[in-house]
Amino acid sequence: MLTWRWFAARFGGAVLTLLGVTVVVFVVLRTIPGDAVTASLGTESGTLTPAQRESLNHYYGIDKSWFEQLWTWISGIAHGDLGLSTTSGKAVTELLGTALPVTVEIAALAALMGTAAGIVLGVLAGARAGRTSDTATQGAALVGLAIPEFVVGTAVVTILAEVFSYFPSTGTFIPMTNSVSENLSQVFYPSLVLAIPFAANVMRTTRSEYVEMAEADYVRTARGKGLHPGRIRRAHILRNATIPIVTLTGIQFGYLLGGTVIVEQIFALPGMGRLLLTSITNRDYPVVQGTVLVIAVLFVLVNLIVDLLYRAIDPRTRAA
C-alpha cells in the first residue's frame, strides 16, 4: 500500500536531485571558455568597446554575479518561467514545447521496439542456453552494443538513399495527429537506430535472468508437477525475471530522452537533443538550462514510474 511517507521521500529526493542538476549545469556552463557575446559575434567581439561589451553583457544577463544569476533562474522556475532565448528571443518554454514531443516520440518508439525485441530474443536465447542459437544471439547483441549510434545512423541513411532511393522526411516535424504515415516516416528510422543498443541490453538481461530463474527450486517443482512448459515460462520464470528487466528499461528510457542528440542531427529532426547542441554552441544559457532541467524532470518521473511498477509486480517491496 502506498503511503504518504513513501511519496514524501520520493518527492524530497526528486527536488534535491533537480536542484543539484540545476546548480551543476549552471556552474559548468559558466566555466566553459567564452560567453554569449563571443558566441553571437564571433571574432567581431574583439572590436567592441568596453561600453558596448558592458551593454551586451547586461542584455544577456551575464553582468550579474553567479549567485544573482542562479537565484534569478531558480526564482523563474518557481513561477514557471524558464527565461528567454538569448539567440532567438523566444520563450524557452515555447522552444521546449516544440522540441519535447519530437524527442519523447522517438524515445518512446525506440523503447517499445527495443523492449519487445530484447525480451523475445532473450527468452529464445535463455530457453536454448549453450546452443548455437544462444551464442549467435549473444554475439549479435554485443555487436549492437559495440557499434556507435552515429555509425548505425549514417549507415541507415546511406543504405536507404543508395539502395532504395528513399530519403527519410526531415526538417519540419509532422505530428501524428496531422499525418500518421508522414510522422512515422520521420521518427521510425531514428527510433530504429536507438532501439538496436536498447534491445541488445534488454536481451542480455532477459537471457541471464531467464537462465537463472529456470534453475530455481520452485521451477523444478513446477516441472515435477507436470505443469505445461508455457505456463511455467510465463507464471514462474518470466514473472520473477521482470524486476531487473523493468529496472533496465526504465533507466535506458531515461537515458534515451537525453541521448537523442546524434540521431536528431543525422536525421535533421527538431528535437531537444538538437536544440541542446545548438544552444551549447551559441552559449544560450537559458535554453541549455531549461532543456537539461526538463530532461532531468522526465528522468525523475521515469524512475518514479519504475518504483510504482516494482510495488505492483513484487509485493515484498510494498513494505519498503
TrEMBL record:
Matches recorded under InterPro entries: BPD_transp_1_N (IPR045621), MetI-like (IPR000515), MetI-like_sf (IPR035906)
Domain ABC transmembrane type-1 span(s) in chain numbering: 100-310
Membrane-spanning residues: 7-29, 106-127, 139-167, 187-203, 241-267, 287-310
Membrane topology, from the record: Multi-pass membrane protein
Location in the cell: Cell membrane
Recorded superkingdom: Bacteria
UniProt KW keywords: Cell membrane, Membrane, Transmembrane, Transmembrane helix, Transport
Family from the record: Belongs to the binding-protein-dependent transport system permease family.
PANTHER family linked to this entry: DIPEPTIDE TRANSPORT SYSTEM PERMEASE PROTEIN DPPB-RELATED (PTHR43163)
Protein name in UniProt: ABC transporter permease
Organism this protein belongs to: Yinghuangia aomiensis
